[in-house]
Structure formats: structure tokens, C-alpha cells
Amino acid sequence: MSKPRLSYFGGRGLAEPIRLLLKDAKVEYEEVNLGTAANGVFPEAFLALKASGVLDYGSVPYWEENGLNLVQSFAISRHLARKHGYNGENEAEAAKIDSVVEGTRDLVMAIRKVLTVPAEQKAQTWQEISKVDIPKWFGFFEALLKKSGTGFFVGKKASLADIYVIAYTEEIRCLDKSALASFPLLSAHLDAMFARPNLAAYAADPNAIPSFARLWHKNNNNK
Description:
Layout: E1 5-8, H1 16-24, E2 30-33, H2 44-51, E3 62-65, E4 68-71, H3 73-84, H4 91-111, H5 122-148, H6 160-175, H7 184-194, H8 197-204, H9 212-221
Parallel strand pairs: 1-2
Antiparallel strand pairs: 1-3, 3-4
Helix pairs in contact: 1-3, 1-6, 4-5, 4-6, 5-7, 6-7, 6-9
């Protein structure tokens, strides 16, 4: 294999932090779009990959690199962070980076509640998430940025912590442009990260994989 390869469904989702890190670090890689699952029906490309036995837990994203085959988004992200300089300057920073990343994962779990309720309850559930869960976690992230004082969550340069936070704050901003209004440091952090040349180019790419948040918002507003 001449280039590493990332396989995932046709949306950002769990693979987006991986993509953002790879883009920011100028890592050349191939991406396999496995299609989109709908109403519990998975695309043939994913089912074929799963049947091949290479997915240790039967799930994606799936990363292939010089004989190394990895699943689980956090394992892939941490591997790439260590390899490309996004894991801090020492063990203490690495531990703090992991803590921030785990915080974003808790935020995502809270948001995913909207996917588990009946269609008629989704709007109300999203309102509850918007008023309670998102402000709570955005408040935590705002406080961490203030404590750091460097413009980054940990240390003096971009790390996996920054990558994970922007992946999901951007998703939320797609759904609600006012979500960051009360969090100036977090809003400035998101803008600054996407002003980095490689991330700016990625964000402006018309062929970039669409946001799950944008698709969900579009589908629910068209009903």
C-alpha cells in the first residue's frame, strides 16, 4: 500500500477528528467511502469489509498503514497524534490531552440522545440538549482555554485535544449558529483552528464529506 487508507461511512462522524488531524499535519492518505447507513440498513461496501474479518470489533472507522490495521476512532486518533506530534511535549500533557478528548466524547454521547428517541420527540430532545448538555460542556471547554492561556487546550501548540474539540463544536455550530455566543474563547479557538492553512483549505473544499449535523438539520427541516 503506497498510502495509508481510512475507511468510513459517507459522513463525518467518528472519522472527522482523524481527518482533521491528517489534514492539519499534511499527511497524504486515501479514503474509502463505504456509503451511508439508513434505517438500520448498512451499505454493501461496509458489509463486505466486515465479512472479510479485518474489523476487530465489526465497526469503522478502519485505518490501514504499512501492515498496521486499526479500528476504534480513539485508538486511531491517538496513534496518529503520537506519530505526527499532536500528543503533547511530555506525559503530563499527553494525559491532559486525553482528558479533553474524553470530555468531547461525553458531549457526543449526550448529543446522540436525539438519535435514540422517536421522530416526534426529536425536536424536544434537541431543545433539551441545546439548553442543558451543550452549554454545560462548552462551559467546561471555555474554562480550560482560560486556564491554559495559550489559545490551545494543552501546551503551546495544537494537539489532539484541539482537534477533537473543533470537530464537534463545528458540528454543533452547523445546527445552531448561536451555540457559541456565550463562549468567546471557545468561539475564537474554533475560528483560529480553521484559519490554519490546511484546515481552511479542507473546510472550503466543495468535495469534502458532508456534516452529519447539516444533513440531520436539513432532513428535519424539510419534513
